[in-house]
Amino acid sequence: MARAEFSRNLLSCFSRLPDAMIVRVCIAVLLLSFCVKDTAAQSDPHVRVRVLGSQKPTSVSVKATGGDLRIHLPSTSSPVMRLRPGESATLSLRGPEVAIERSADGIYASALDIQPDEGVTWTLTSGDVTRAYTGPLHVEPDGSSLQLVNHAPLDDYVASVVAAEYGFKDLEGSKAMAVVARTYGVRASDKFNSGDYDHVDNTVSQVYRGVRAITPTSRRATQATAGQVLTYDGSLIEAVYFSSSGGHTANNEDVWDAKDVLPYLRGKRDPYDRNSPHHRWSTSVPSSQLLSALSNEFGTRITGFVLGKRSSEGRLKTVTLLTPGGRMTVRANNFRLAITRRLPDADLKSTWFDASRNGNTYRFSGRGFGHGVGLSQWGIHEMSDQGRDYQDMLSFYYSGVDIRSFDGAQIDAPARPVASNPPKERKKEEKEEETTRRIGW
Prior knowledge:
The chain is an alpha+beta fold. The protein has helices spanning 3-15, 19-43, 154-165, 171-186, 216-224, 252-255, 287-298, 332-342, 377-385, 390-397, and strands spanning 46-50, 59-64, 69-72, 81-83, 88-94, 97-101, 106-109, 112-116, 122-126, 129-133, 137-142, 145-153, 199-200, 228-232, 235-236, 241-242, 281-286, 304-307, 318-323, 326-331, 353-358, 361-366, 375-376, 402-405.
């Protein structure tokens, strides 16, 4: 129906109503308009992601590419600067303020908001890294660097994460990853104390490299699962994932310092891991390098280590470190991450390993890649090759979950029972990776 015809019909209906009824109808129409606006806002959610934070940038270049960029002060509705397509400006740190400068003018402020038109792409360049984004950008100082927070449209965020995190082209596996990435994204994180953002763009959250990273498969998978998230008893789950299980997934409490057992993160035999290149592995590390790395990581001289308790499938739960003054017991996952951080070439892929010493060399032999909790990426790839659909994949790796359409008004706020460290010990994206509880590291 044409808009003019609809208006004439509506006025005709009003003319036949009593005055009191007209008032009630008008109130109802106004309330409906608010509901429609609210529904529209919820149907286009954003994820607040701190981008390029691991580089600790003091200066970046922002460029308008697909349309205008409007520069706002946080307290103003009208733009104080506008960048036209092809035009760029420099964002930099000036003491306690942020500066945006181009050839003709510049602005200093405590913070800046950069607003593109809907769907407009723009770029950030920091050093030799250039990435394209959609959605607004909030900029403010963070100590000695810039804090750059992209309010990324959810679909763009999910498609980019799937492309970065899932290295395969099969559609069903990509769909499963899209649901997982969306669940992880909309389930606001409690890792970041500032509250200015929910996630970062690296492995502390999920790898997000902007819209140029999106592939046709990751976009198609995102669209095919639009709005779908994973819940357990009505709450969004901790949608953790990793690379390869080694033949058995892990219970959350066996890997992390979890105060609660999560019923959907139960370890189980995994028959879909056989073709993974990480199913079984071995690596050798010079003993002097390994002990030095552990000493630097844990702040005391380490002279050796003893393998501790194991879960039922064989993953180590603890490792005891030997020191001149005695012993200290740490989580096996913390032991592994300490070695991979300090010695990237050591390639200690999981906590499912045995260790031996031969002269001046430690030899590790193990199974799987990553923490082992939740979804296995090599597993869903194999399931896809066997003709299984993404619903089968998600229900296999997450016990008892439901796939639901995301609606912020209907999904309960998630509980946060899994915590590797007390919140006071966490410091944004540069903190230790054991706080992340995810992906194949």
